[in-house]
Amino acid sequence: MKRYLINHNCVYNEARNEIKNTDNALTIKMTAMRARCLSFIIEHAADGIIDKQKLTSALWGERGQFVSDANLTQLLYLIRKDLRTMGISNFFVTIPRMGIRVNQQITVDVLPDEKLRKRYGIWKVVIVTAFALSLMSLYAVFDMLRSTPHN
Question: GO: which molecular function terms (predicted)?
Fold first, then answer.
């Protein structure tokens, strides 16, 4: 599961189905369907227009052929509302009878995996500690050599 930084100040966490504003710590918990839809939109932003049939199939699978346009419209409305609450307006626009297109003016960056970040964060502490201990040992050796009388 990925995490995305949207518009430089909102973190969308797929694993938690939530969007958090880094400026004010406001968090919105999304339904699983809304989160899946937002993930699909983000992943296919570079496609230009995201076909509504493709989006419907990705979200509802085989049942997608029986889902009305109103269901998709409502889902997109709720995602827009969540994003607007976070201060992100016009993240995507509807292209009538075709689908949606993501606003290229709004940046979306993939953030590093939290598990990797935590693991490497621990390793940084271990390396810095080992380095500090090595320096202290070297200092002790030099101090001992300096204080030993030379003939």
Answer: DNA binding
